[in-house]
Design brief:
single chain, 651 residues, alpha/beta, TIM Barrel, Rossmann fold, 8-stranded parallel beta sheet, 21 helices, 12% strand, globular, Cellulose_Degrad_GH3, hydrolase, beta-glucosidase
Length: 651
């Protein structure tokens, strides 16, 4: 059981033997390994276990003062441990369901590497998730200086799960993907949604979110369009600001009880030169010019107005871009000093933590470049994104990344090469100190040094409530875009279904039938089409790549074209990417676009219980020829789009 104050004043008075507490507000404290010290009737965690109040333990001081004191007490190895994000090891082999973390392995990692930043891939219900993160904090508290863990996660509330980009939701209410948030375009609703995410994540022990993803979705074929805020730079900037504010708990930076936002990926990642993703060797280039760059940083300008805790750089090598009349060094953005220190810190004034994306320091082997042979499943172990620095050693890559502006390296389990880079004179410890200071200031601001623990019983009651689920379902329906026709069917309608759960139709008052001749209407659900073009690459095997056009033999076209003449057809397409809907519109009476919605949410729309209010967050091209002719860095520039950016049908 976690020992902590029940209330701020009452708990403090009890531990002080009913002494009067000073006017300064006593925060709730949580501890398992260390004890408390009492000064002037106030209580503090004795993190270094010296039975005295050390300045960094003193919550009356500012985060900056506490960080300066703690930094002065740290060894180089302990500082380097602050600059990596290790993976919290699950208590089950990869691919098998885990119930928590491997606590013995966690304790060993913390003792040997001094890591305190961990990403969790654990996918389970809220209560065991909270218990697991408490166990992680207990292991961190046992460290020499008692520095609490910053436990981070990829998004867990979006509808679509993608390994390496999001995590299955478990107990969390499910909401539309990022493009659905943009389709609705309501900053107040976005802020409310982000506030719910904040409460859920903190209740389960998370204090940092690798999100929101605010890349400008200018290349329609790009596989990660689904979780952006679309290709309208103004809408994306507005949604980014609202989400960061709600997630962090304030409009001007992270607060105690907030979740640190790491907005990503600065910048140009989505302007893929060939439509592929820069997780892969074959997709490592983006292409945009100076005017397009201004549009791609616009969402980040919106986010930075709310002072996000972190920014994650893009993987890509930026082709064609010249800044101040000079071309960029052809390296990934994480290694590009002119982008990170020049544009992000200098021009835009960002003073938070720069967190690299994963695998940027790893060697790119033949399997990374050429993919795994046919018949051999690809592996995350062979993924590297060290674009443009392949000829450097791993130690040199760490040095170059730190010099460019990286504070924390994602997906690194051992900081030994950071230590080596300093000891070999490849990078100054002054830069290390500056990075670690930024990291520590945030941890103090989050309140983790006072109480990193959570109450699993509270989690069970407060996370994924019926109210939360209803809010998510409402947003799924409201974010839909009506493209053609009228979206309502009368109660009792006999419906022929494709891609729809009959139980959801029955729950909405419809009568599912299997014979088209007995139907009053047909309902078809499908997703934007894709091709599996690179099965030998880990992310190539996971991503939607290739053509956005429905092939002639697609099951959705077969269903639509074989319906009896005159039978009304309602089509809903989940737009993970901007599909070419031209052949479907020929057959359909009503066309809806959705962005991550359950069958129940769709039925709410068809029954008239929820009104689809969305506008297209990206244009829908008329043909693949139009897609291939446009520039990857320019928004909404395909010739004669079937539906333009921002479109919705009049009702």
């Amino acid at each position: 059981m976690i020992r902590r104050f029940v209330t701020l004043a009452a708990g403090a008075a009890a531990l002080a033997g009913c002494t009067t507490v000073s006017e300064q507000v006593q925060p709730a404290l949580g501890w398992r390994v260390t004890a408390l010290v009492t000064v002037d009737g106030l209580h503090f965690r004795d993190l270094d276990r010296d039975h005295a109040l050390t300045p960094y333990e003193d919550w009356r001081l500012s985060p900056e003062e506490r960080a300066a004191d703690l930094l002065a007490r740290m060894t180089l190895a302990e500082k380097a441990g602050q600059m990596i994000v290790a993976t919290a090891p699950n208590n089950a082999p990869p691919g098998q369901p885990a119930t928590g973390y491997d606590t013995a392995a966690l304790a060993r990692i913390i003792a040997e590497t001094h890591a305190t930043h961990f990403i969790s891939r654990l996918s389970t219900r809220a209560e065991p998730l909270a218990e697991a993160n408490n166990a992680l904090q207990e292991a961190a508290e046992a460290g020499r200086l008692g520095i609490p863990a910053v436990v981070m996660t990829d998004p867990r509330h979006g509808f679509t799960e993608l390994a390496g980009a999001s995590v299955a939701g478990g107990s969390f209410a499910q909401f539309p993907n990022g493009v659905g948030i943009a389709a609705l375009g309501d900053a107040d609703v976005t802020r409310r949604y982000a506030d719910l995410v904040r409460l859920d994540l903190r209740a389960t022990g998370f204090s940092m979110l690798l999100g929101p993803q605010i890349d400008l979705a200018t290349e329609p074929r790009w596989p990660r369009n689904f979780d952006t805020f679309g290709e309208d730079a103004a809408v994306s900037a507005s949604m980014a600001a609202a989400f960061v504010e709600g997630l962090q708990g304030a409009p001007d930076g992270v607060t105690t009880g907030g979740v640190a936002a790491v907005v990503k990926h600065f910048a140009g990642y989505s302007a893929s030169a060939n439509g592929f993703d820069a997780h892969n060797w074959y997709g490592r280039f983006s292409r945009l010019d100076a005017a397009e760059w201004e549009q791609h940083i616009r969402p980040f300008e919106g986010a930075l107005a709310a002072r996000p805790a972190g920014v994650m750089p893009a993987y890509s090598i930026l082709q064609e871009l010249e800044l101040d009349g000079a071309p960029l060094e052809q390296v990934g953005v994480g290694y590009n000093e002119r982008i990170l220190r020049g544009q992000l810190r200098g021009r835009l004034g960002f003073d938070g933590v720069i967190v690299s994306d994963w695998a940027i320091t790893k060697d790119c082997t033949a399997l990374c470049r050429d993919g795994h042979p046919v018949g051999e499943p690809p592996s995350f172990a062979t993924v590297s994104t060290a674009w443009g620095v392949e000829n450097l050693t791993e130690t040199e890559r760490f040095a170059k990344g730190i010099a460019a502006g990286i504070d924390v390296f994602g997906g690194v389990d051992d900081p030994a090469l950071i230590i080596a880079a300093v000891e070999q004179g490849l990078v100054s410890e002054v830069l290390v100190d500056a990075a670690v200071t930024r990291v520590l200031v945030q941890a103090f601001a989050l309140g983790l040094f006072e109480n990193p623990y959570v109450d699993p019983a509270h989690t069970r009651i407060e996370v994924g409530t019926a109210e939360d689920e209803a809010f998510g379902r409402e947003m799924q329906g409201r974010s839909m875009v009506l493209l053609e026709g009228a979206p309502t069917l009368r109660e009792g309608s006999r419906v022929l279904l494709s891609g729809v759960d009959p139980e959801a139709a029955r729950a909405a008052g419809f009568v599912p039938v299997t014979d088209a001749r007995a139907a009053d209407a047909a309902i078809l659900r499908t997703r934007s089409p894709f091709e599996l073009l690179h099965p030998g690459y880990m992310f190539g095997s996971l991503h939607q790549e290739g053509s956005l056009a429905f092939p002639a033999n697609h099951p959705a076209l077969a269903f639509a074209s074989n319906l009896p003449a005159g039978l009304p057809l309602v089509v809903d397409v989940q737009l993970d990417r901007p599909a070419v809907l031209t052949p479907l519109t020929i057959h359909a009476d009503t066309v809806l676009a959705s962005f991550g919605a359950s069958d129940h949410a769709l039925m709410d729309v068809l029954r008239g219980r929820t009104r689809p209010e969305g506008r297209l967050p990206f244009e829908l091209p008329r043909s693949m020829e139009a897609v291939e002719a446009q520039r990857p860095g320019t928004a909404a520039d395909s010739a004669d789009p079937l539906y333009p950016l921002g479109y919705r049908a009049r009702r």
